């Protein structure tokens, strides 16, 4: 991929457009501000690729749960304590957790699907989880997303493939939820229906459109129900999801007449290319920023409370991080872990330069999470939001699904104590590999974290996900 | 070679359904419990475990015109049209050239076992909006270009609501691929009323069209039988369901007038009639050819070339050649299937390719056997073309294990389980500029546990080592001669010693086992369940396919027709 003059020109224009987003005005008008103290809880799941430089991520000697530094040289977590760049330090809005495993029963590349499902990835050709992801469980099944215009949204950068790879959101039965990779479509999905002009003609047009739209939804709804009455028990799930989707669409129509007093930002301009492997890579950084800004705006307007964002890498020649063009091959496959970072699978002899390279990319990804926190903070909703960021691998050279990087951020409305680092014991005696069937293996599966998060949202469950041994998917995360 | 401690005894098993191996191997794709048994051999067992069903009950079997003695049936189901099917359907209905689902805004198909047509497709909150937008755009276009006026004529003296009723009955039946029931017709008439209110007759018709294009009756193919049948056990598909199943399987498009007429006459229960209709479609309908090409590409996974990228420092030519590599992966399959022998043997064994391919990567030797083709020296068949070689590779290197696993699973039907399901940790070999790719990957035979599986995979994959990660020929790598010699010893009919993947491909071309594997995958594509190990009826299909003349067994068209002829084509099991 070449860096063309037209791309640079486009990105310059885009930067101007972003700056023009009426951010402050929006916040003044936000529903959340008007509603006062009883803020709802919001959940955002974030995926970032290529695992973690564990040697540089880990708590350092002498640090404790509450006394730690994030700003040392080569720290992947630096952006969370970088007030100069992100407006303030988010060190006290953070829980950094080490030692969490994704028990996906598959290779790291297919394990993103486990992050919010706690499910094994089963079936051929990459496989899928078997149950829904936590965002969908809370928003759809527990109906916590019902109150807002948009029940939930799944955003992604560069990859809209419906699979267990680089996908966080899954509906009932583990079916991937469509990811929106185009910020223009993300804007439409979140804001289009909320925009109604103030002149009477525009309102009359909107009312007519609403009536027409409602008649179509009613018809399709009836048609899906007629079909549903004819199918066997295995097939109702599909049609129920269709009915849920129609309900989500209907909610947006209803708001045409009511509105929520929230001024929407300008519709972003279209990107020349969006997809990975097809020329989209040079735009990924800008797309990520735009997704984050739109998401924070939408949450600030209480348009939605549940979202996921699957980030991507910067695999193109002369990328701004100076990473090898093939990020994964040149950064993950070449990772040379120490015993600490290897989960017992040493590849290479522990080369600190390879740690620093990955840490640079980790810092880039956490910088985006920090941008999200900053935007949520500007919208006044950081304290009522919980962000859960993770990757599909720990040690990237081994593509290991053990000891994956785990960051909780935001305030979670006080339900989770922030400003901490938690380090769970390693699964096996340090520096060795032990089989999950052995007695010396003691996993801390992310299922426990999902249970804790559900409980923080007031959903009283003590089991989440699908594991061969049910105990692995039971009980909250101790110490959280 | 890396080794890890091996615990003495299994103290607890995480999963009683599988045997955990207490060993970790190094090397990417470490596979345990591999056997050269065709993976399809699990088919009948799996079907029984999930409630395999004997179809020969009552008059059911005879009604389908065949002897379905103890055939396992697919479950009664609905399945949402895949993207290509949706586009072909709206084009057939409205004579439009729009392809909404192929556009960048639509989410891609959810794949099962590599196939885009399957019963897992859903309508979620994003797709429902795309469908609504597409329906709106299609209805507006059809209103503006006169299509709706043609489909819903209404004389000046006629009562508009009565014209709307006629349109709903006639066009609705085409959209639903069956006559509408009263309740559906009244719901659509209500839509007409809303749309025409304060507007024109055609505005009302356009509104009905919007509704129809988002309806469950349009979006879901049903395989349910009719309500008069028992709600449990074997059910016969209705004639209209047969017409739609046949049409979408062969052409990815809705049934044409002749198929609908055959359905109305009750003719499609007869396997001979289904065969005749399939042959007619292959002869006259370009969609049938497109569909066969799609099935072959998805079987081999080479359609994934569209999503392949290479490190431009390692493979600077790739971006420029990619369109030709993609074109070859389509045009070559089409040429073999419909302009040459039509046989899977030629697919693997051809010593020519189409001129739309990346000829600058190849060594050509004059013009080929069909128009627009070239003879090749040093490239045999589709597996030695760039699409296969570049798809099954990393961005910066060839990947013998990806290639070997693809051959083992999808060309040879060897049963291979995923390494992770046996608690084996996968570790890709580190880069090493002093060794060849083969040397880096060839650690498995040194470990007895790894060797069990990599005995199958490695020879298949290493045979391709003269082709780099984008499919270009290389004699040397890192200053060393490339070694592509392999010995295959799996009690397969293509066992033997081979100098390279070209020789191996020639052996595949002659192999009965490879032909049968192809037939299994065509069955799985047709069954569209995505569960290759437990698809009811696979073994029955293969047994029936074996009875067709040997020369026709490798025929792509004849294999698809063999499926259409099966008594079980028209039967489902209702739970």
Descriptive overview:
The complex is a heterodimer of chains A (480) and B (575). Chain A is built from 15 helices and ten strands. In chain A, a hairpin with a 3-residue loop joins β4 and β5. Chain A is α/β, with parallel strands linked by helices and 480 residues long. In chain A, α8 packs parallel to α11 and α11 runs parallel beside α14 (352-378). Chain A has helices spanning 5-19, 23-28, 31-35, 54-57, 83-86, 112-115, 134-141, 183-191, 200-228, 233-258, 284-300, 327-332, 339-342, 352-378, 446-456; strands at 42-47, 94-101, 153-156, 170-171, 175-176, 306-310, 385-390, 404-410, 420-423, 444-445. Residues 1-5 and 15-38 of chain A have low confidence and may be disordered. In chain A, strands 1, 2, 3, 6, 7, 8, 9 and 10 form an eight-stranded mixed sheet that branches. Chain A has a two-stranded antiparallel ribbon with strand order 4-5. Helix content of chain A is 36%, strand content 10%. Chain B has a domain at 79-222. Helices cover 46% and strands 8% of the residues of chain B. Chain B has helices at residues 42-49, 60-63, 83-94, 125-144, 147-151, 160-176, 182-196, 201-214, 216-219, 239-251, 257-264, 271-284, 286-300, 318-339, 344-349, 386-391, 400-411, 437-441, 448-462, 501-509, 512-527, 538-546, 550-553, 556-565; strands spanning 35-38, 77-80, 220-223, 233-236, 352-354, 363-367, 373-377, 414-415, 476-477, 480-481, 486-488, 496-498, 571-574. In chain B, a hairpin with a 5-residue loop joins β6 (363-367) and β7 (373-377). In chain B, α10 packs antiparallel against α11 (257-264) and α17 packs across α19 (448-462). The longest helix of chain B has 22 residues, at 318-339. Chain B is elongated. Chains A and B meet through β5, α9, α10 and α12 of A and β2, α4, α7 and α8 of B.
């Amino acid at each position: 991929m070449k860096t063309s003059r037209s791309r640079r020109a486009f990105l310059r224009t885009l930067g101007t457009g972003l700056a023009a987003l009426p951010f402050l005005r929006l916040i003044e008008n936000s529903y959340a501000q008007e509603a006062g103290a009883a803020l709802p809880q919001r959940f955002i799941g974030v995926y970032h690729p290529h695992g973690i430089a564990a040697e540089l991520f880990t708590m350092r000697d002498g640090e404790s749960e509450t006394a730690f530094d994030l700003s040392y040289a080569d720290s992947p977590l630096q952006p969370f304590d970088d007030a100069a760049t992100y407006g303030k330090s988010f060190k006290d809005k953070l829980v950094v957790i080490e030692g969490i495993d994704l028990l996906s029963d598959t290779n790291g590349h297919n394990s993103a699907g486990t992050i919010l499902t706690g499910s094994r990835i089963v079936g051929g050709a990459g496989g899928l989880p078997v149950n829904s992801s936590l965002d969908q469980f809370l928003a759809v099944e527990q109906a916590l997303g019902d109150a807002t215009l948009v029940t939930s949204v799944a955003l992604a950068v560069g990859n809209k493939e419906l699979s267990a790879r680089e996908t966080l959101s899954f509906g009932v039965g583990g079916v991937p939820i469509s990811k929106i990779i185009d910020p223009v479509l993300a804007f439409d999905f979140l804001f289009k229906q909320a925009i109604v002009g103030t002149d009477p003609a525009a309102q009359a047009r909107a009312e007519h459109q609403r009536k027409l739209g409602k008649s179509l939804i009613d018809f399709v709804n009836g048609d899906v129900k007629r079909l549903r009455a004819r199918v066997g028990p295995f097939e109702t799930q599909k049609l129920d999801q269709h009915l849920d989707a129609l309900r989500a669409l209907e909610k947006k129509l209803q708001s045409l007449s009511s509105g929520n007093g929230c001024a929407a930002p300008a519709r972003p301009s279209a990107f020349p290319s969006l997809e990975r492997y097809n020329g989209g890579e040079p735009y990924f950084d800008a797309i990520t920023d735009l997704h984050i800004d739109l998401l924070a705006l939408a949450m600030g307007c209480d348009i939605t409370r549940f979202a996921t964002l699957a980030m991507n890498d910067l695999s193109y020649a002369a990328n701004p991080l100076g990473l090898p063009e093939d990020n994964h091959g040149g950064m993950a496959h070449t990772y040379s872990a120490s015993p600490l970072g290897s989960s017992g699978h040493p590849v290479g002899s522990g080369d600190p330069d390879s740690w620093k390279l990955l840490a640079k990319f980790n810092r880039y990804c956490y910088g985006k999470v920090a941008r999200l926190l900053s935007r949520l903070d500007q919208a006044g909703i950081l304290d009522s939001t919980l962000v859960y960021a993770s990757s599909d691998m720990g040690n990237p050279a081994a593509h290991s699904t053990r000891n994956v990087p785990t960051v909780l951020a935001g305030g979670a409305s006080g339900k989770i104590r922030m400003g901490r680092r938690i380090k769970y014991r390693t699964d096996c005696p340090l520096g060795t590999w032990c089989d999950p069937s052995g007695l010396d293996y003691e996993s801390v599966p992310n299922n426990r974290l999902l249970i804790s998060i559900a409980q923080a949202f007031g959903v009283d469950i003590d089991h989440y996900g699908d594991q061969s041994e049910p105990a692995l998917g039971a009980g909250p995360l101790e110490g959280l | 070679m890396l080794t890890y401690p091996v615990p003495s005894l299994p103290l607890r098993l995480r999963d009683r359904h599988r045997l955990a191996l207490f060993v970790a191997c190094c090397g990417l794709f470490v596979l345990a419990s591999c056997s050269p048994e065709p993976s399809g051999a699990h088919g009948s067992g799996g079907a029984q475990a999930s409630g395999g069903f004997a179809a020969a009950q009552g008059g059911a079997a005879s009604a389908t015109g065949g002897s379905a003695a103890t055939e396992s049936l697919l479950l009664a189901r609905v399945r949402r049209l895949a993207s290509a099917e949706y586009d072909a359907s709206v084009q057939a209905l409205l004579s439009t050239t729009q392809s909404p689902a192929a556009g960048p805004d639509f989410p891609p198909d959810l794949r099962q076992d590599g196939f885009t047509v399957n019963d897992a497709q859903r309508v979620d909150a994003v797709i429902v909006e795309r469908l609504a937008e597409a329906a709106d755009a299609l209805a507006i276009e059809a209103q503006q270009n006169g299509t709706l006026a043609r489909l819903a004529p209404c004389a000046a003296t006629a009562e508009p609501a009565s014209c709307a009723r006629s349109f709903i009955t006639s066009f609705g039946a085409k959209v639903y691929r069956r006559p509408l029931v009263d309740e559906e017709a009244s719901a659509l008439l209500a839509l007409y009323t809303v749309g025409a209110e304060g507007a024109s007759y055609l505005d009302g018709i356009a509104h009905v069209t919007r509704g129809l294009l988002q309806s469950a009756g349009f979006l879901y193919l049903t395989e349910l039988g009719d309500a008069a049948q028992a709600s449990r056990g074997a059910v016969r598909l209705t004639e209209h369901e047969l017409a739609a199943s046949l049409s979408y399987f062969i052409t990815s498009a809705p049934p044409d007038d002749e198929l609908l007429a055959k359905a109305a006459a009750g003719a499609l229960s007869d396997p001979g009639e289904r065969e005749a209709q399939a042959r007619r479609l292959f002869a006259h309908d370009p969609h049938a050819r497109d569909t066969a090409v799609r099935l072959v590409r998805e079987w081999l996974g080479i359609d994934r070339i569209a999503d392949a990228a290479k490190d431009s420092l390692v493979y600077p030519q790739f971006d420029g050649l990619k369109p030709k590599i993609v074109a070859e992966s389509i045009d070559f399959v089409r040429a073999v299937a419909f302009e040459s022998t039509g046989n899977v043997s030629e697919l693997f064994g051809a010593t020519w390719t189409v001129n739309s391919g990346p000829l600058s990567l190849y060594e050509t030797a004059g013009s080929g056997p069909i128009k627009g083709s070239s003879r090749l020296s040093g490239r045999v068949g589709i597996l030695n073309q760039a699409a296969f070689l570049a798809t099954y590779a990393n961005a910066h290197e060839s990947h013998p294990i990806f290639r070997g696993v693809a051959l083992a699973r999808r060309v040879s039907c060897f049963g291979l389980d995923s390494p992770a399901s046996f608690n084996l940790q996968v570790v890709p070999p580190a880069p090493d500029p002093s060794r060849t790719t083969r040397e880096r990957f060839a650690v498995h035979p040194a470990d007895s546990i790894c060797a069990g599986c990599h005995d199958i995979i490695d020879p298949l994959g290493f045979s391709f080592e003269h082709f780099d990660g984008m499919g270009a020929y290389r004699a040397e790598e890192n200053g060393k001669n490339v070694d592509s010699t392999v010995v295959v010893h799996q009690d397969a009919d293509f066992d033997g010693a081979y100098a390279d993947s070209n020789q191996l491909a020639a052996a595949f071309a002659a192999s009965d086992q490879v032909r049968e594997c192809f037939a299994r995958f065509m069955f799985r594509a047709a069954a569209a369940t995505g569960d290759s190990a437990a698809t009811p009826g696979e073994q029955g299909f293969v047994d029936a396919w074996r009875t067709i003349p040997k020369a026709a067994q490798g025929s792509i068209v004849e294999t698809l027709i063999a499926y259409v002829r099966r008594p079980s084509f028209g039967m489902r099991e209702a739970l």
